[in-house]
Protein backbone atom coordinates (compact mmCIF):
# COMPACT_ATOMS: atom_id res chain seq x y z
CA UNK A 1 0.00 0.00 0.00
CA UNK A 2 1.23 3.47 -0.91
CA UNK A 3 -0.02 6.63 0.79
CA UNK A 4 0.31 9.87 -1.17
CA UNK A 5 0.98 12.71 1.25
CA UNK A 6 0.27 16.44 0.82
CA UNK A 7 3.79 17.22 2.04
CA UNK A 8 4.88 16.01 -1.44
CA UNK A 9 6.07 12.58 -0.33
CA UNK A 10 4.73 9.04 -0.25
CA UNK A 11 4.69 6.34 2.40
CA UNK A 12 5.21 2.65 1.60
CA UNK A 13 3.15 1.29 4.47
CA UNK A 14 4.29 -2.34 4.60
CA UNK A 15 7.96 -1.39 4.32
CA UNK A 16 7.70 1.46 6.82
CA UNK A 17 9.52 3.70 4.35
CA UNK A 18 8.95 7.35 3.60
CA UNK A 19 9.69 8.09 -0.08
CA UNK A 20 11.00 11.56 -0.91
CA UNK A 21 12.04 12.76 -4.37
CA UNK A 22 14.21 15.72 -5.27
CA UNK A 23 14.90 17.28 -1.88
CA UNK A 24 17.67 19.41 -3.46
CA UNK A 25 19.03 20.34 -0.04
CA UNK A 26 21.16 23.46 -0.21
CA UNK A 27 19.59 24.81 -3.40
CA UNK A 28 18.66 28.11 -1.77
CA UNK A 29 22.22 28.44 -0.48
CA UNK A 30 23.53 27.83 -4.00
CA UNK A 31 21.16 30.49 -5.36
CA UNK A 32 22.30 33.05 -2.78
CA UNK A 33 25.91 32.44 -3.75
CA UNK A 34 24.89 33.45 -7.27
CA UNK A 35 23.29 36.62 -5.97
CA UNK A 36 19.69 35.41 -6.25
CA UNK A 37 17.67 36.76 -3.26
CA UNK A 38 15.91 33.71 -1.86
CA UNK A 39 14.89 33.02 1.76
CA UNK A 40 17.34 31.49 4.21
CA UNK A 41 16.86 28.43 6.44
CA UNK A 42 15.01 26.45 3.76
CA UNK A 43 17.09 23.36 4.58
CA UNK A 44 16.01 23.59 8.23
CA UNK A 45 12.39 23.89 7.07
CA UNK A 46 12.75 20.82 4.85
CA UNK A 47 14.28 18.81 7.70
CA UNK A 48 11.43 19.86 9.98
CA UNK A 49 8.97 18.63 7.35
CA UNK A 50 10.76 15.29 7.28
CA UNK A 51 10.53 15.05 11.08
CA UNK A 52 6.81 15.78 10.95
CA UNK A 53 6.28 13.10 8.30
CA UNK A 54 8.27 10.49 10.23
CA UNK A 55 6.26 11.28 13.35
CA UNK A 56 2.93 11.13 11.48
CA UNK A 57 3.64 7.88 9.63
CA UNK A 58 5.92 6.01 12.03
CA UNK A 59 8.42 5.54 9.21
CA UNK A 60 11.54 3.58 10.07
CA UNK A 61 13.43 4.66 6.96
CA UNK A 62 13.53 7.55 4.51
CA UNK A 63 14.36 6.67 0.91
CA UNK A 64 15.44 9.66 -1.16
CA UNK A 65 14.60 9.07 -4.83
CA UNK A 66 17.56 11.01 -6.14
CA UNK A 67 18.86 14.58 -5.94
CA UNK A 68 19.32 14.76 -2.18
CA UNK A 69 21.95 17.51 -2.50
CA UNK A 70 21.67 20.23 -5.10
CA UNK A 71 25.37 20.80 -5.82
CA UNK A 72 28.88 19.94 -4.64
CA UNK A 73 29.35 23.49 -3.34
CA UNK A 74 26.79 22.99 -0.56
CA UNK A 75 28.58 20.04 1.03
CA UNK A 76 30.65 22.30 3.29
CA UNK A 77 28.19 25.11 3.92
CA UNK A 78 25.39 25.90 6.35
CA UNK A 79 23.01 23.43 4.69
CA UNK A 80 25.43 20.54 5.23
CA UNK A 81 25.93 21.54 8.87
CA UNK A 82 22.16 21.57 9.39
CA UNK A 83 21.81 18.10 7.89
CA UNK A 84 24.67 16.75 9.99
CA UNK A 85 23.12 18.09 13.20
CA UNK A 86 19.72 16.68 12.20
CA UNK A 87 21.23 13.28 11.46
CA UNK A 88 23.15 13.16 14.75
CA UNK A 89 19.85 13.41 16.61
CA UNK A 90 18.22 10.49 14.76
CA UNK A 91 20.72 7.62 14.74
CA UNK A 92 18.00 4.96 14.55
CA UNK A 93 16.37 6.31 11.40
CA UNK A 94 17.47 4.50 8.25
CA UNK A 95 18.44 6.70 5.31
CA UNK A 96 18.84 5.44 1.75
CA UNK A 97 19.65 7.46 -1.35
CA UNK A 98 18.93 6.21 -4.86
CA UNK A 99 21.47 8.20 -6.84
CA UNK A 100 20.16 10.90 -9.18
CA UNK A 101 21.81 13.21 -11.67
CA UNK A 102 22.52 15.94 -9.10
CA UNK A 103 23.95 13.36 -6.69
CA UNK A 104 26.46 12.25 -9.30
CA UNK A 105 27.56 15.87 -9.70
CA UNK A 106 27.51 16.71 -5.98
CA UNK A 107 29.10 13.46 -4.83
CA UNK A 108 27.78 11.00 -2.28
CA UNK A 109 26.69 12.39 1.09
CA UNK A 110 29.46 12.63 3.71
CA UNK A 111 30.05 9.32 5.49
CA UNK A 112 29.03 10.73 8.88
CA UNK A 113 25.50 11.33 7.58
CA UNK A 114 24.98 7.56 7.64
CA UNK A 115 23.23 7.39 4.28
CA UNK A 116 23.16 4.09 2.35
CA UNK A 117 23.73 4.96 -1.32
CA UNK A 118 22.36 2.66 -4.04
CA UNK A 119 21.81 2.68 -7.79
CA UNK A 120 18.45 2.49 -9.51
CA UNK A 121 16.33 0.46 -9.67
CA UNK A 122 16.34 -0.38 -5.96
CA UNK A 123 13.71 -2.99 -5.00
CA UNK A 124 11.41 -2.33 -2.05
CA UNK A 125 8.10 -4.03 -1.32
CA UNK A 126 7.17 -4.68 -4.95
CA UNK A 127 8.42 -1.29 -6.12
CA UNK A 128 11.43 -0.44 -8.26
CA UNK A 129 12.65 2.79 -6.69
CA UNK A 130 14.43 5.07 -9.13
CA UNK A 131 15.30 8.66 -9.82
CA UNK A 132 14.31 8.63 -13.48
CA UNK A 133 11.34 6.25 -13.38
CA UNK A 134 10.47 4.12 -16.39
CA UNK A 135 8.63 0.80 -16.58
CA UNK A 136 10.60 -2.13 -15.21
CA UNK A 137 9.89 -5.82 -15.58
CA UNK A 138 8.20 -7.34 -12.54
CA UNK A 139 7.81 -4.20 -10.43
CA UNK A 140 6.13 -0.80 -10.46
CA UNK A 141 8.76 1.92 -10.93
CA UNK A 142 8.54 5.01 -8.76
CA UNK A 143 10.81 8.01 -9.03
CA UNK A 144 11.15 11.76 -9.30
CA UNK A 145 13.44 13.89 -11.48
CA UNK A 146 10.68 15.57 -13.49
CA UNK A 147 9.17 17.79 -10.74
CA UNK A 148 5.66 17.11 -12.08
CA UNK A 149 2.93 19.72 -11.92
CA UNK A 150 -0.50 20.27 -13.37
CA UNK A 151 -2.12 23.43 -14.69
CA UNK A 152 -5.78 23.89 -13.80
CA UNK A 153 -8.13 26.60 -15.05
CA UNK A 154 -7.50 29.35 -17.56
CA UNK A 155 -6.62 33.01 -17.66
CA UNK A 156 -6.73 34.79 -14.31
CA UNK A 157 -7.98 31.58 -12.67
CA UNK A 158 -5.02 29.54 -13.91
CA UNK A 159 -3.39 27.53 -11.12
CA UNK A 160 -0.18 25.49 -11.13
CA UNK A 161 0.04 22.72 -8.55
CA UNK A 162 2.60 19.99 -7.83
CA UNK A 163 1.23 16.53 -8.47
CA UNK A 164 1.77 12.80 -8.36
CA UNK A 165 1.66 11.33 -11.87
CA UNK A 166 0.99 7.57 -11.87
CA UNK A 167 1.20 5.81 -15.22
CA UNK A 168 0.65 2.19 -16.13
CA UNK A 169 4.17 1.00 -15.30
CA UNK A 170 5.84 3.95 -13.62
CA UNK A 171 4.94 6.85 -11.36
CA UNK A 172 6.58 10.17 -10.52
CA UNK A 173 6.50 11.94 -7.16
CA UNK A 174 6.42 15.74 -6.86
CA UNK A 175 9.64 17.45 -5.84
CA UNK A 176 9.97 17.70 -2.06
CA UNK A 177 12.39 20.62 -2.02
CA UNK A 178 11.69 24.31 -2.48
CA UNK A 179 12.62 26.39 -5.55
CA UNK A 180 12.51 23.33 -7.81
CA UNK A 181 9.95 24.54 -10.34
CA UNK A 182 7.18 22.52 -11.96
CA UNK A 183 7.15 20.60 -15.22
CA UNK A 184 3.59 20.24 -16.60
CA UNK A 185 2.63 16.58 -17.01
CA UNK A 186 1.17 15.14 -20.21
CA UNK A 187 -0.96 12.24 -18.98
CA UNK A 188 -1.54 9.29 -21.27
CA UNK A 189 -4.95 7.59 -21.39
CA UNK A 190 -5.43 5.62 -18.18
CA UNK A 191 -2.89 7.62 -16.17
CA UNK A 192 -3.86 8.90 -12.74
CA UNK A 193 -2.93 12.38 -11.53
CA UNK A 194 -3.24 13.58 -7.94
CA UNK A 195 -2.73 17.27 -7.26
CA UNK A 196 -1.29 18.62 -4.03
CA UNK A 197 -3.59 21.43 -2.92
CA UNK A 198 -2.81 22.84 0.50
CA UNK A 199 -3.10 20.07 3.06
CA UNK A 200 -4.84 17.60 0.72
CA UNK A 201 -4.04 15.30 -2.18
CA UNK A 202 -6.89 15.40 -4.68
CA UNK A 203 -7.47 13.19 -7.73
CA UNK A 204 -7.84 15.11 -10.96
CA UNK A 205 -10.75 13.43 -12.74
CA UNK A 206 -10.75 15.61 -15.86
CA UNK A 207 -7.22 15.87 -17.16
CA UNK A 208 -6.09 18.81 -19.31
CA UNK A 209 -5.54 17.93 -22.96
List the helices and strands and how they pair.
Elements: E1 2-5, E2 9-12, E3 17-20, H1 27-33, H2 42-57, E4 61-64, H3 78-88, E5 94-98, H4 101-106, E6 116-118, E7 122-124, E8 127-129, E9 140-143, E10 148-152, E11 159-166, E12 170-172, E13 183-184, E14 192-197, E15 200-203
Beta-strand content estimate: 25-35%
Largest sheet: 9 strands, mixed
Counting DSSP H or I runs of 4 or more residues, the number of helices is: 4
| Arithmetic mean pLDDT | 87
Shape: globular
Q: What order do the helices and strands follow?
A: EEEHHEHEHEEEEEEEEEE
Quaternary arrangement of the chains shown?
single chain
Low-confidence stretches: none
**Radius of gyration from the alpha-carbon trace, in angstroms:** 17 Å
**Which range best describes the helical content: under 10%, 10-25%, 25-40%, 40-55%, 55-70% or over 70%?**
10-25%
Distance from N terminus to C terminus (CA atoms, Å) equals 30 Å
**What is the SS-derived class?**
alpha/beta
The number of strands is 15
What is this entry, summarized?
The chain is of the alpha/beta class and 209 residues long. The protein is 19% helix and 30% strand.
Description:
The protein is about 20% helix and about 30% strand. It has about 210 residues and is α/β, with parallel strands linked by helices. Strands 7, 8, 9, 10, 11, 12, 13, 14 and 15 form a 9-stranded mixed β-sheet that branches. The model has no long low-confidence stretch (mean pLDDT about 85). The radius of gyration is 17 Å and the shape is globular.
Amino acid sequence: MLWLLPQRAAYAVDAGALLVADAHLGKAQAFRRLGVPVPEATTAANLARLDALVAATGARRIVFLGDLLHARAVRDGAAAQAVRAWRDGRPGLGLTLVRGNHDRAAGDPPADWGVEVVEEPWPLDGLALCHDARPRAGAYALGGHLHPGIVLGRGADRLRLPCFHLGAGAGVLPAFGEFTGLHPVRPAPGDRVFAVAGDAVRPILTLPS
